[in-house]
Design a protein that fits this description.
312 residues, alpha+beta, Immunoglobulin-like, Neutral Protease, domain 2, 2 domains, six-stranded antiparallel sheet, five-stranded mixed sheet, 7 helices
């Protein structure tokens, strides 16, 4: 069915198909095919990224040809960039529809379609709970259930610390390999990409995170970033990186391996003052030390003042 305003049904375009094709991670192409007796002025493509305030529309490219039915057969196409400065994280839910504008100012909208933006090379599975929706492939369901169970136990503590109740589940995508994560992760720096520094990224604007590998700590870390964002809302951009990353690492189950890195950094006098830790550095070695140092600072503050005071 299509919504028609203000034309009579018999006079509107007959929609044969509307579809999308994911060219991961570059873009998504969209296509509308139909026939119409009326002369079409323009066809617009509308989209919305679920869980965000991101909406938009753009004109389509229209091609037409005569049809044996006597109607004008048309194809309208558009594309949505998903990489570079227009990066959209894997796992984002996207809705779209087309609006047909006729010469006589009448309009017709197609039914909206909603889909999950995921790399089509893989056969994705989906697991949902009250707090998290996970997309994964080529991993046993029992393994996913085990990791999510461990993660949710800790994330309950995180929610209590932040004094928040989730309105909707966080969305998570698990990438199985370095190659897969290289396609899915945003491009931060050539050094970080080459040295495989980052194990995941959280995207508060989209309420999505991506992690490489099936790890409870990876899920806890990135989900903590999203929960912190919900707590602080738009003020999150004012939170220094050392505090954001330090809290996320503090809640990891197995986080003691970074202590030695921080100790060596202290001995070698490589630790930075807090004033220069507002953002994460770009070089691989500096990034690892930054994370270890941030975890140590937050751990110290919590030990001295308690968890309740950490965000004050």
């Amino acid at each position: 069915m299509n919504s028609n305003t203000p034309l009579e049904n018999a006079a509107t375009a007959e929609i044969a198909s509307q579809s999308h094709s994911i060219n991961f991670p570059i873009n998504i192409s969209f296509e509308l095919i139909g026939e119409s007796h009326r002369e079409i002025d323009e066809i617009l493509f509308y989209y919305r990224l679920a869980g965000t305030n991101i909406t938009g529309y753009k004109p389509t490219s229209i091609s037409s040809m005569d049809s044996p039915t006597g109607r004008n057969r048309f194809t309208a196409t558009s594309a949505l960039a998903t990489s570079g400065s227009k990066y959209i994280p894997s796992g984002t839910q996207i809705s779209y529809y087309f609006k047909i504008l006729y010469i006589n100012d009448a309009e017709q909208e197609t039914d909206p379609i909603t889909f999950d933006y995921l790399d089509p090379k893989y056969r994705w599975q989906k697991m949902e709970s009250e707090t998290i929706t996970v997309f994964w492939h080529d991993i046993t369901k029992s393994k996913i259930e085990e990791v999510i169970s461990k993660s949710e136990t800790v994330l309950e503590q995180v929610s209590e610390l932040f004094d928040i109740e989730q309105n909707r589940p966080i969305r998570a995508v698990i990438a199985n390999s370095q190659r897969e994560s290289a396609d899915s992760f945003p491009k931060i720096s050539s050094s970080a990409t080459r040295d495989n520094v980052y194990g995941g990224f959280a995207f508060p604007q989209y309420e999505v995170f991506i992690v490489r590998g099936v790890s409870a700590d990876g899920i806890i870390h990135e989900a903590t970033h999203l929960l912190m964002s919900q707590k602080l809302d738009s003020a999150r951009s004012q939170v220094p990186a050392w505090l954001s990353e330090g809290i996320a690492m503090y809640f990891e189950i197995d986080n003691e391996h970074r202590n030695r890195t921080a100790e060596v950094g202290y001995i070698q006098k490589k630790l930075r003052p807090l004033s220069s830790m507002q953002s994460v550095p770009g070089k691989s070695g500096d990034i690892r030390l930054f994370y270890a140092h941030s975890q140590g600072i937050v751990g110290y503050l919590i030990d001295k003042g308690g968890k309740e005071k950490i965000l004050r």
